[in-house]
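Subject: complex prediction, re-run

Hi both,

The earlier run crashed halfway through, so I resubmitted it with identical inputs.
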Amino acid sequence: MTQATLLQQILDYANRADPYPLYAELRRTPVTRQEGGVYAVSTYWEITGLLHDPRISSDARNRAPQAGAGPLPVVPQEETDLPPSFIGLDPPEHDRLRRLAMRPFGPPHTPRRVHDMRAELTRTVSGLIDAFQGRSEVDIVDDFAYPFPVTVICRLLGVPREDEARFHIWAEAVVAALDPDPVEGAPDRARAARRARSELGLYLAGLAEERRRAPGDDLLSAMTSGHGPEERLSPVEVVTTAVLLLIAGHETTVNLIANGVLTLLRHPEELKRLRDEPGLAVPLVEELLRYEPPVQLLPQRTAVADIDIAGTTIPRGAPIWLVVASGSRDPRRFADPDRFLPERPDNQHLGFGGGVHYCFGAPLARLEAQIALTELARRLGEPRLVEDPPPYRRNPVLRGPRHLRVAFDTLAR
Ligand code: HEM
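This time it finished cleanly. Structure:
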């Protein structure tokens, strides 16, 4: 089997339920040149090095025009008429925008923001589980793992929850373009994503204008009002940042929670332990981010200089895919990597990436998953999977079940 075939197999939907044996094969050569000139990096230390390396860029404008001409094209990162948001920019532009977006969300200016959301998150989770009353089976994705983070990010950003049906369609279209599989109508996806991102941007620009006139206690209001003449996001920067936060804030956590429920139901002894010792949720969520990460690969980097790594030279202009889910299962970094061990010591997984683009929402995502899994473990009596493996979403980048049917006998208060 050639390496190119291996990467195509990873993208193949038929392997979505268990891509891990394919990653193990990919790791035999830490850095490989694939069809289309893509360099796939699959081992922990090489990925970690590159995540911190200023010679790789996240800015699509650094991509060589011929890159991706082959059968495995480069993913259109942010196909849109709007300028890129900071996930698609390099320092120093990236750092300025990230710093301004962080002001109302975390340290140093708002260090308690996420911590203070605990009671509200718990109330939201309780309300969703209360609605299971009278049923013996639920779809954990549609009934719980999706509505929970959407409600949270809406409240945080200041987006009306009742508009979800409108922005969900746009968000889905944007996320679909992250799928690097070239056989599934990539140009159409990219066009649809560009249109959807513009529409979502227009919608959020309208809301930002409302918040400018009547500010509330939300991130859109804070980003719109700014903090002094030089420390202000421009109106377009507010929109690109809000688009990024809305999408990143709800298309990933859903998979962490659904992957978490699936993993716990496949490891009933750990589910029982979580029920008895809720404090286990903290290391357990870290292990989930290593063992079943919602973000499997980062296919959006470009070399801006020749890079010698693991016996290979990645040439300037080459697209790079960092297969973070493979790095987090690298036996050279983690003992017994294919076992789910919630109390694994020294668990520096790659689930939130690394370097300057390290996940902005990590503290919120962690808290959401900890509360969600603890409450489900506590309240569902005799839960069991109706279908294993469940049907998966198409996307190989943001991987998780499309539906997760769980049957149960009783519902605790
Ligand atoms: C389980 C849930 C989540 C996972 C697994 C996750 C994962 C990631 C990863 C791997 C990256 C790095 C991307 C790259 O290097 O190109 C990232 C970046 C980012 N995430 Fe998350 N994320 C999650 C939840 C969230 C939430 C809840 C928010 C917002 C509140 C968020 C906002 C962001 C933003 C804004 C970036 C870009 C950071 C930058 O470029 O500086 N994420 N996330």
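The chain has 16 helices and twelve strands.

- K.
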